């Protein structure tokens, strides 16, 4: 089944290629270097995702949220950003983090439960991963508004999921962005599922894109498994934001091909048939066919890219696994820019405990029960 056939039929849906990689309209005429970059990031993202799942299964990584099947939505949108634009992620945007220069080893560290993974290297214009669903939305709107007031001329790309659109934070952030004309693009990766809750149970709206209209800005409905369509739609929206035309909402219609996280078993709530059907609409497969028809893709080229990706992945795993244990004190250090008196006290107790010193019980009780 084609992606179009799964959608409300009376809605405008932006797509450049069908599931077999054939053009559905005019060729968008993107540069060959960009097309190759798109394929590289999608392939690298897919292989890195696969490695992360394997590491989790081997007990070398904590719970991990896979991106397989969503590479076009992530790569198309992140490549559409300028270097000065800012990224607000949710938690399932592996390819986007890497495109924005967050090394894979940081992502591995984060999912190993090591806070050092969530400290972006200097100069990175990306906020850390937001696990509490949609909490990034109002912050992204406010941040974009601040950038507008400071006349910095940049825009913000804020990711969230279909499930995230049911949160109050989503509506507050959208409303704020609309009223203040904040230069922000909200990109909903509608992957059809929020853990085991299907898109149908999330909203009675025909599309998520139409919610933009309600807040006074454009809602764009795009094939999220079509990397060129996502790229073009996001670029237009970011450019409009930077020209002072305000926010946009993009719904990238895609599919979470694997489990919600490695702690989940999707077989309990969706059919094999559904999963098989989406295998056929896989974004990497589609784009490969398009590039092959164009004479850009060869097996030898993909083999080279695969080797390059495997090499990078191996180095990242080695870096993440050899970083050494955390200092226990570190758990207090990144909560506030300045440690609160309570935390300072607790850190003091911890230091004493580490030195093997006795701690007066009363003092500990009064100050909140540590250790
Ligand atoms: C405020 C909040 N409520 C619940 C959760 C538990 N939770 C984690 S992911 C998730 C579903 C999110 O679905 P969606 O927004 O569609 O993103 P996806 O997981 O599909 O990428 C839930 C309920 C959470 N992290 N934060
Ligand atoms: Mg979802």
Question: What would your notes on this structure say?
Answer:
The protein is an alpha/beta fold. It folds into 2 domains: 319 residues, 3-Layer(aba) Sandwich (Rossmann fold), CATH 3.40.50.970; 39 residues, no CATH class. Helices cover 43% and strands 8% of the residues. The protein is built from 13 helices and 7 strands. It has a 5-stranded parallel sheet. It has a two-stranded antiparallel sheet with strand order 4-5. A hairpin with a 2-residue loop joins β4 and β5. The radius of gyration is 22 Å and the shape is globular. The structure holds thiamine diphosphate and magnesium ion. Thiamine diphosphate binds next to β4.
Number of domains: 2
Spans of 5+ residues with little confidence (pLDDT < 50)? Answer: 366-371
| Lateral strand order in the biggest sheet | 1-2-3-7-6
Label the structural class: alpha/beta
Rg, rounded, reads: 22 Å
CATH architecture of the largest domain: 3-Layer(aba) Sandwich
Oligomer: single chain
Helical content band: 40-55%
DSSP, total strands: 7
Instruction: Give the C-level CATH assignment of the largest domain.
Output: Alpha Beta
């Amino acid at each position: 089944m084609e992606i179009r056939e799964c959608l409300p039929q009376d809605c405008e849906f932006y797509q450049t290629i069908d599931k077999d990689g054939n053009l559905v309209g005019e060729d968008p005429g993107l540069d060959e270097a960009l097309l190759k970059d798109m394929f590289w990031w999608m392939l690298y993202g897919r292989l890195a995702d696969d490695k992360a799942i394997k590491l989790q299964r081997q007990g070398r990584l904590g719970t991990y949220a896979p991106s397989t099947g969503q590479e076009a939505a992530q790569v198309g949108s992140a490549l559409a950003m300028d270097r000065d634009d800012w990224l607000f992620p949710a938690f399932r945007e592996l390819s986007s983090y890497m495109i924005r220069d967050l090394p894979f080893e940081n992502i591995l560290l984060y999912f190993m439960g090591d806070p050092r993974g969530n400290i972006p290297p200097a100069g990175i214009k990306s906020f850390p991963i937001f696990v509490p669903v949609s909490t990034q939305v109002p912050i992204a709107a406010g941040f974009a508004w601040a950038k507008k007031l400071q006349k910095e001329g940049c825009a913000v790309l804020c990711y969230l999921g279909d499930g995230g659109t049911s949160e109050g934070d989503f509506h507050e952030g959208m409303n704020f962005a609309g009223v203040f004309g904040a230069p922000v693009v909200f990109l909903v990766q509608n992957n059809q599922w929020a853990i085991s809750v299907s898109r149908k149970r999330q909203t009675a709206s025909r599309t998520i894109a139409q919610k933009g209209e309600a807040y006074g800005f454009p809602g764009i409905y795009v094939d999220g498994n079509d990397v060129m369509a996502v790229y073009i739609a996001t670029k237009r929206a970011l450019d409009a934001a930077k020209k002072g035309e305000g926010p946009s909402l993009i719904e990238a219609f895609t599919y979470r091909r694997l489990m919600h996280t490695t702690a989940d078993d999707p077989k309990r709530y969706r059919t094999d048939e559904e999963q098989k059907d989406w295998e056929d609409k896989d974004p990497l497969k589609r784009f490969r066919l398009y590039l092959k028809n164009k004479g850009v893709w060869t097996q030898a080229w993909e083999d080279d890219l695969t080797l390059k990706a495997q090499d990078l992945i191996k180095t990242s795993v080695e870096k993440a696994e050899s970083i050494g244990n955390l200092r226990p004190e570190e758990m207090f250090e990144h909560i506030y820019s300045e440690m609160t008196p309570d935390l300072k006290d607790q850190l003091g107790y911890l230091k004493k405990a580490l030195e093997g010193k006795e701690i007066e019980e009363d003092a500990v009780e009064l100050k909140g029960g540590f250790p």
